[in-house]
Amino acid sequence: MKKIILVVVLTFISLGVKAQDKVNWLSFEQAMEMSEKEPKPILVDIYTDWCGWCKKMDKTTYKNKVIIEYINTHYYPVKLNGEAKHDITFQGKTFKYQAQGRRGYHQLAAAIMKGQLSYPSTAFFNTERQLLQNVPGYLEEKRFEKILAYFNKDNYKNTPWKEFEKNFKSAM
Q1: Of all helices (H) and strands (E), which one includes residue 7?
Q2: Which of 158, 168, 127, 152 is CA-nearest to residue 69?
Q3: Alpha helices, DSSP H only, in 47-169?
Q4: What is the pLDDT of residues 88-127, one digit of tens each?
């Protein structure tokens, strides 16, 4: 009987751990809608299917348990393909796929990155769904943890980055 109870308890524990083994990605529209109902900052990972650094970030940074838990707790996370072909309406404007050469780009991704199409890029929106900052390039776990904490709550409003970075205490 004790063995059965132990197996049941371990099964429930492992199911609880599984719930935080990946980032709970949303579509851009889902995140905006959820943030409107229950305000929370939004993180947007802008990637392409051909981007090697995007794939590396998915396999390393976005697999880190501390990063996963922090994102799932404090942000509405979005995966946005920079070359997506579907329309996205945001702030009353419809953003579309823009054909260009062999590859095109999504107008929303280009707007978030201010025309500098650099993949991967990580954009942060505040609780009012306003773009705060786009951070281009691959972000390793320890640096990304600091950036996540900086754009969470009002840290970015009250503390200069250099000071925040100097005083940051990592959970890793």
Answers
A1: helix 2-18
A2: 152
A3: 52-59, 65-74, 107-112, 141-151, 155-158, 161-167
A4: 999 999 999 999 888 899 999 999 999 999 999 999 999 9
Structure tokens at 166: 């100097």
46, HSE (Cβ side, Cα atoms, 13 Å): 26
Question: Does residue 133 surpass a pLDDT of 80?
Answer: yes
Please identify which residue in the block is written with the tokens 């609880």: 16
Pairing of strands 97-98, 76-81: unpaired
Please give the Cα distance from 47 to 55 (Å, whole number): 9
Which residue in the block uniquely carries the two structure tokens 């970075």? 165
Pair type for strands 42-47 and 121-125: antiparallel
C-alpha span between 163 and 120 (Å, rounded): 26
Structure tokens at 89: 């309406």
